[in-house]
Design goal:
Structural class: mainly beta
Largest sheet: 6 strands, antiparallel
Number of strands: 6
Radius of gyration: 18 Å
Distance between the termini: 29 Å
Shape: elongated
CATH class: Mainly Beta
CATH architecture: Beta Barrel
Number of domains: 1
Order of helices and strands: EEEEEE
Strand content: over 45%
CATH topology: OB fold (Dihydrolipoamide Acetyltransferase, E2P)
Amino acid sequence: MKVQQPFTHNYLFTIKIYTMTIVGRITKDAVVNQLKDERTVVNFSLAINETYKPKEGEYVKVTTYCNCSYWISEKIAENLKKGALIEVTGRIYVTAYSELMVQPKPHSTAM
């Protein structure tokens, strides 16, 4: 069993959570990036809207943003335009940055 050390250094950690399917709208046109090793990746962001009503009160709208990367083909970027409603299935990773002896900062979710 590996014992986790207390926060003693600045570091970035990534945790693989699960595979999940989400539906959302694209926040801006997808961007195709080429890496140093000649691979290409399509990056885009989804906005996922949720509305709920507490027992007492008005409806509340919550928007969650999810950064996504598509590694199979760059041709998909032609269809990933701002405002398009899409369904995405993939592995989810949560990344957080922690400072020395301080609580973790807000994290980002990527798919």
